[in-house]
Design brief:
It is built from two helices and ten strands. The chain has about 150 residues and is of the alpha+beta class. The protein has one domain: Protein Transport Mog1p, Chain A, CATH 3.40.1000. The strands form two sheets. A seven-stranded antiparallel β-sheet has the order 3-4-5-9-8-7-6, sandwiched between helices. It has a three-stranded antiparallel β-sheet with strand order 1-2-10.
Length: about 150
């Protein structure tokens, strides 16, 4: 079972992440969270919402469905946290796609975060399945613990 630590810096959001993962700041509140032993990286991207939430949603959905060529299926899991104003979608991608999990989260008025996981190995679902499940779970924890700073 993974242990999680709270991550916070000067960006307008916080989240929990696996204590064994390595986070790198890529500037403008974009991060990579690496799992060197598993040859996997979660890419987090932040964008401010400026009356353009529809464009952000469209871009996130387009990115997800670009993987349908290699994917066997894509399962959508809506996420709603009314108390903390975090709304989004978690996508589980089955098959030999380049990514097996993606998400977006927003407060719908000011903030938009996307996340996707990529493995640095030939996408062969059977061989990466244990690592894939582990990192996918971490990404879901990250999304569920996402909070906006006021």
């Amino acid at each position: 079972m993974a242990e999680y630590v709270h991550f916070e810096n000067n960006c307008p959001f916080t989240f929990d992440m696996n204590e064994d993962a390595v986070i790198s700041d890529k500037g403008t509140c974009n991060f990579t969270i690496s799992y060197p032993k598993m040859k996997a990286t979660i890419y987090l991207t932040y964008k401010p919402v400026k009356n353009d939430i529809e464009a952000h949603l469209r871009d996130a959905q387009t990115l997800t469905y670009k993987h349908t060529i290699k994917a066997d299926d894509i399962m959508e899991q809506p996420f709603i946290n009314e108390k903390n104003k975090v709304y989004g979608m978690f996508y589980k991608v089955g098959g030999n796609a380049a990514t097996n999990a993606l998400f977006y989260a927003t407060d719908s008025t000011r903030h938009f975060v996307t996340g996707s996981v990529y493995f640095y190995a030939k996408p062969n679902f059977d061989s990466i399945m244990p690592a894939s499940s582990y990192v996918k779970n971490d990404m879901q924890v990250l999304m569920e613990t996402l909070r906006w700073k006021q």
